[in-house]
Amino acid sequence: MAEPEDISWLDQRVDKLARLEKSRTKRNNPLPLSAAHRRYVNAAGDVRLRLAYHLDPGDAILYEILHFHLSSRTQRSEASLKALSHRAMAYGLRQGGSLSDALTGAGAAINLLNDELRPENTQRDFQAIQHQRDILERSLARYGEIRSTAQSEGWWDGIPSVRRDELEEHAKLLTRIRDNVRRTQVKAPSGP
């Protein structure tokens, strides 16, 4: 394939490398994936997802994707889901946490609350529900504190407007969910 004359030699090589990489990762086999290959692809994705989350545990999107990935497994591990959520909540409330960290912690508390408040869950842990509600409140309050500090110190304006809008929209969503959780009356069983 002839390269256009007005593209530099280096740009031609970069384009060729991009085409080679695309063809390397393109699946062109008409047969469906074997069970072993499907397991390999899932395991490779799992490793990459865990690594990405480990590198940036305050990223709400990575947290939510990893949480969904773990919860959608055929052999779902409640312990690993709870451990992930507890790590995210602790990370979000730590001293020196960021705006995104606090929102990630709030999202983790909501995920745990969702698991506890499912209608089919007949064995609710009322202390855990109260603890998660408290974490949700503290995480959103922490976000508000960091945001106020950012505005008073002037670094809020240094955050790109698109990112500020994302943070604000995420905070509004979590606040609406928190308000719905507040309206949910969960009563501990009465009796001995």
UniProtKB/TrEMBL annotation:
Superkingdom of the source species: Bacteria
UniProt name for this protein: Uncharacterized protein
